[in-house]
Structures are given as structure tokens and as C-alpha cells.
Amino acid sequence: MNYTSKRLDNQDAPQTTERILYFIKTKGPVSTATLAKTLDMTGEAARQQVQKLVAAGLIEGRQEAQAGAGRPRQNWVLTEAGNARFPDTHAQLTIKLIGSVRQLFGEAGLDKLITQREEESRSAYALACSAPDLPTRLQQLATVRDEEGYMARVEADGKDWLLIEDHCPICAAARTCQGFCRSELQLFQEVVGPGATIVREQHLLTNAMRCIYRISPLP
């Protein structure tokens, strides 16, 4: 599947299979009924599409306990193969390069490489996220991260904001060397500024569905 940053309500969105995978990626876990309603399909058509994706090994069921009596509800999430349909920037080559750097220059050399990447990101974010007000800066940050392949968006949550990243284009590299994630909070805090705090509430590397950061204005 070719990655697209177009949202699901865009009429130029990909074919049904890809739209389902994209919706589960960004909104999952989701039920068959939710898929049918969102994609304007009949329940039977949605079930057929789901079964095709299950048979292809792209999605799998996850049971959600119902409140009170009743059978658990079946929701759908992407499998590892389903997630692989979204870009992981040159994953295997990146992993090999990380291994080579580690072997040739040790952890200190790898640390220098990561630090250089941090500085490049810091400069880019400072330039792109320069609005005077926090909500606009957060939208600018989400735009930058979206362009980098993180499928990022900002949502209001009461007095807070959530920076949500449904995908990690360097996930394979980050699993090999978690130093790639170490500076994100610091970089984001610099964008947020001294008037708010940011914490990571969900993390892909701890088996969450996505990475979510909560930004809370200070009193």
C-alpha cells in the first residue's frame, strides 16, 4: 500500500481494503459495525472485507469486555504484516547500518550519530514551529511530524492537547536502538515552551497502538 496522508473522508482515498487498513491504523481497535458505518457499507459487506483481511493476515481480532452481561465485543487491530503495509523508512538497511556503526565505533560512536540527528531535528523544528501561540505551534509540529511519516495530528482534550502519532517510520531502528526515541520529549518540550508541560502517555515501543503525548498548560 502506498502511504497517504489524506484523511479517510477524502473522496480520493484509496480502495476499500486500503481505506480499512488506514482507518484501523489511525482509529483502531475498531469493530466491524464501526467500519461499516464509517465507510458507508452494509454490515455484510464490511464483514466480508474484514474476513478477507483476516485471511490475508493483515488484521486480527481483539476481545473487548462488555459492561455488564453479554458476549465480549470483537475489535480489529493490525497485525505485524498489516503494519508493514505502512512505510518503515528503509527498515532493514537502517538496522544493518546501526549494527555496523555499533561494531565499528562502539556505543559512543552510535551515540554521536544519534546526537547529530537530534541537532538536525532541533533546528528543523525551531524553524517550522515558530508561531507565538501554543495551539498553532502544536499544529505546526504535527504538520512537520506528519510530513516525516508519523501520521501525526493534534486533538483538544479538555484544557489539554494530545499530539497523536499513529505510525513510526523509524520503528525498526528505534527497537534496535532506543536512543532514537530518547530526545523526542525534550525536542517537543522546546517547541511547547515554558508555558506548558508534555508527557508521553502511550508508546509504540511498549506495545501501544500509537504514540500519544499530552500537553498541559501550566497554571
Q: How would you characterize this protein structure?
A:
There is one protein chain. The longest helix is centred in the middle third of the chain and has 38 residues, at 91-128. 49% of the residues lie in helices and 17% in strands. It contains 9 helices and 6 strands, in the order H-H-H-E-E-H-H-H-E-E-H-H-H-E-E. The chain has 2 domains: 15-84, Arc Repressor Mutant, subunit A (Orthogonal Bundle), CATH 1.10.10; 89-217, Muramoyl-pentapeptide Carboxypeptidase, domain 2. The strands form 2 sheets. It has a 4-stranded antiparallel β-sheet with strand order 3-4-6-5, with helices on one face. Strands 1-2 form a two-stranded antiparallel ribbon.
What's the gyration radius in Å?
Answer: 19 Å
- The CATH class designation of the largest domain is Alpha Beta
Strand order of the largest sheet: 3-4-6-5
> Number of helical segments?
9
How many independent structural domains?
2
Q: Assign an overall shape.
A: globular
Q: Helix and strand string, N-terminal first?
A: HHHEEHHHEEHHHEE
Strand content: 15-25%
Helices, strands, pairings?
Layout (H helix, E strand, L loop, with lengths): L15 H12 L4 H7 L4 H13 L3 E6 L8 E6 L1 H4 L7 H38 L5 H14 L4 E6 L2 E6 L5 H6 L2 H4 L1 H9 L3 E7 L8 E7 L2
Antiparallel strand pairs: 1-2, 3-4, 4-6, 5-6
Helix pairs in contact: 2-3, 5-9
GO molecular function, one term: DNA-binding transcription factor activity
Pfam family, one: HTH_20
Protein name: MarR family transcriptional regulator
